[in-house]
Write a structure and sequence with these properties.
Blueprint (H helix, E strand, L loop, with lengths): L6 H9 L13 H25 L21 H36 L6 H7 L4 H27 L3 H7 L13 H21 L13 H11 L6 H5 L6 H21 L8 H10 L9 H14 L5 H5 L10
Helix pairs in contact: 3-5, 8-10, 11-12
Length: about 325
């Protein structure tokens, strides 16, 4: 039986002096081996950092494949196929939540007894990928009961019901269709733009006690921590200070985890946009490289300034803080 040579066999053969090759040519083999070994180590490092930083793709919506309407196809038949495609998409999203739930239970069981998830992330017992999986799974699980009821009752009409009744917050993120994701991001960035235009705190000022309500409202709008209804009626949303404090603590942990587990360079494209949006940074209409660069600037600025202060200013003003 012919044996298949392994990488170790090639390495040993190359390091020895092969017959028919002059001693003066032996040095040409070793640099090649060194470069190959270095390349292998680099690839492994990239893979390890990517796994540690990026949660599974199952925490994001699956691909949505919609049927094309043929010229000779009846509208009723086309809309029936369209509805079936959406139902299949939603079912795949719900299955992803269940899959993530099983993964989350395994991860939760690996956390040392008596240690919170946040403490485990802080001391390195949890990677950023694992922590984000736990957060997203908990968020999606809370939305499953109501959404499953809507899907059961409405069936193929679920997308229409979700859009016209404003039920996006009742839909797990794994079940958000592309238009829903785009619409939510457009609404968020427009709301953030209005908040900056109306004015909060000047870039060169510290948030004084009397300015805190304005600052909290701006951060709440910028990160979508409360409904726009409260702005319309002119009332302070209840428990807004606690919501802002909790989000700032999460950003502190995530900034630490991204820097520790490899840095912005190893984040996947979808994760770069999510991380930037979570920090009040605009992403629509911007290439991935630009969003990645701004996110890197955020992490650099965080070495000197709090997330609270950065959220009150546009990236162009960070250097003047």
């Amino acid at each position: 039986m012919r044996s298949i040579p392994t990488a170790l066999t090639y390495q040993r053969t190359a390091m020895q002096r092969p017959r028919g090759i002059a001693p003066s040519l032996q040095h040409l083999l070793r640099p090649t081996i060194a470069r190959s070994h270095k390349s292998l180590v680099t690839r492994r490092a990239i893979t390890d950092n990517s796994v540690a930083l990026n949660p599974p793709a199952s925490t994001l919506p699956p691909p949505l494949e919609l049927p094309e309407k043929r010229p000779d196809q009846a509208k009723i038949k086309y809309f029936y196929r369209l509805g079936k495609a959406y139902v299949g998409f939603y079912k795949a999203g719900i299955k992803a939540v269940y899959h993530n739930y099983k993964l989350a239970r395994q991860i939760q069981g690996q956390i040392p007894h008596g240690l919170s998830r946040e403490a485990a992330l802080q001391n390195g017992s949890l990677t950023r990928a694992s922590y984000q999986l736990l957060l997203r799974t908990r968020r999606d699980l809370a939305r499953i009961p109501l959404f499953a009821l809507v899907l059961t009752v409405c069936g193929e009409f679920t997308p229409i019901v979700v859009v016209f009744m404003g039920l996006s917050k009742a839909v797990p993120r794994t079940c958000w269709v592309p238009k829903q994701v785009l619409g939510a991001q457009q609404k968020l960035e427009e709301r953030r733009r209005r908040s900056f235009r109306d004015g909060t705190i000047a870039p060169d000022q510290q948030p004084l006690v009397e300015q805190l309500p304005s600052a909290l409202l701006h951060i709440g709008r910028s990160l979508a921590l409360y409904s726009e209804w409260w702005d319309r009626v002119g009332l302070m949303p209840p428990l807004l200070d606690r919501r802002v404090k909790k989000r700032l603590e999460q950003l502190d942990l995530d900034d630490h985890a991204i820097s520790r587990d490899g840095g912005v360079a190893y984040l996947k494209g979808e994760e770069v946009e999510l991380a930037a949006s979570d920090r009040g940074l605009d992403v629509l209409g911007r290439p991935e490289e630009e969003v990645r660069a701004v996110l890197q600037r955020w992490l650099i600025a965080r070495k000197k300034h709090s997330a609270f202060k950065l959220l009150l200013n546009r990236p162009s003003a960070w250097q003047d803080l």
